[in-house]
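Lab notes, practical 5.
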Amino acid sequence: MAGPGCSSSGTQVPATATPLAGVEPCVPATANCYDREKQAWCVEADLEGERLRLKLYYAELQHIPVGHLRYVAWNAYLVRRQPGSGARESVLALRAPHSSYYVHDGMDVAVVMETDVSVRQIRESAGMYLDGAGNLTVHVEWLESQLLFGATYHKYDDIARTQCHQMK
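Output from the prediction step:
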């Protein structure tokens, strides 16, 4: 799935957190993954609504130099197995590709990625979506990662125009 200039990482996300002594967990199930620059990310599966949502958190905001900002773009896929053949198939999250800007002193509130896979479908067809340990497989394809100077950007700025201006 990764094209030229892209890298990808796959991770196993627990579909539910393990309850302690029969108490319902309040901490969502998460898994760690890394981009091509060895930056840590955290993926969370949200099964609370009608449809599965994936949340991606950037775990290393403190490694962005002060006065800089990091622009990252990616695609996220949910990997499922075909019932008859067992072949793996990737389901792209809706409204892909996803992107976000990150600054050193910012707070990551997660990028929420909607899927068209219903929570009921995951629970009823667990063999399609969950492995033997009850984990979902999420594949993240890293498209771009740019370190930009000057943290005065807004997420609606035109990235290409700004980079061209910086190179002059």
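Observations recorded by the TA: Confidence is low (pLDDT under 50) at residues 1-6, 16-27. The chain has one domain: 7-19+27-167.
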